[in-house]
Amino acid sequence: MKGKGVFVGGLEESAPAKINLYLHVTGRREDSYHFLDSLVVFVGARDIVRYVQGAEPLHLKVTGCFGDRLNQLTVGEDNLVIKAAKSMQAFGQGDVRGGCLLLEKNLPIASGIGGGSSDAAATLRLLNRAWGINLGQSTLLQVSETLGADVPVCLLRQSLRMEGIGNHFRPVPVLPHYGIVLVNCGHAISTHEVFRRWCGEFRSCVSMPTVWRDVYALVAFLKDQVNDLELAACELCPDIREVLKVISVQNQCLMARMSGSGATCFGIFPSVQQAQHAADCITNSYPEWWSWGGGNYSKL
After folding, report:
1. Topology of domain 4-169, per CATH?
2. Rounded to two decimals, what is the model's pTM?
3. Of 12, 201, 241, 272, which alpha carbon lies 20 to 30 A from 34's?
4. Would you call 86 a catalytic residue per the annotation?
């Protein structure tokens, strides 16, 4: 999957879904932000951000299957795409600051896969290119940290170990190829409320291997880990348990788990084809749910 490109009339940038293969809570700061330890990957499910230069003031149009829902929840400058664009305007030179940002919203809202954060990160990359600002990665990371805890890792959009409050990263072994299914039951969940309900004990950081020889070794490692937020999220949204059950009974599913603070869950499969077949089966049986099947990507 290509991360950036050109469409008729402008430039575009992919905003892929972020998946937490495990997520451990390791501590809490005095300001109530939690420290995490998580293996983060990105997959082919994505939003797309496009930019068309114009004389009119910079504005946002949202389309896609979740566009109407997003418009109901965010207005104008409350949207992370607009916040990211405003951040980039401060670095520009010249008079070209107008035009239209087009957000094709294909990922569910408030669903634990970093959709809004990935949209903001894609906007930073896109306008850095479109406006010829050419900020280096370190500066873009500093800008991204002002927009939200998940925006920096979404800016990098590669498999990483994410620690701290989401602002510290370490490389991980090359992940084997595998198939992955994403399923969301349609309920938006507040990350703040999930953390408020979480009442577990802080964990030590995981000891990570130097290599995963295949998907079965990766799954064996992941089964020794958890998503610490899953129980709290299930209390807020009991349908998550049903989603996990449905994923886990699909043919060749190796494991099922919730991503982030929910409600999106994922299943890992030996191949992309098996994941796509499972997603099709789930869509046919539960058409009211959002489902996607495809592959993992080490770097987009």
Report:
1. Ribosomal Protein S5; domain 2 (3.30.230)
2. 0.94
3. 241
4. no
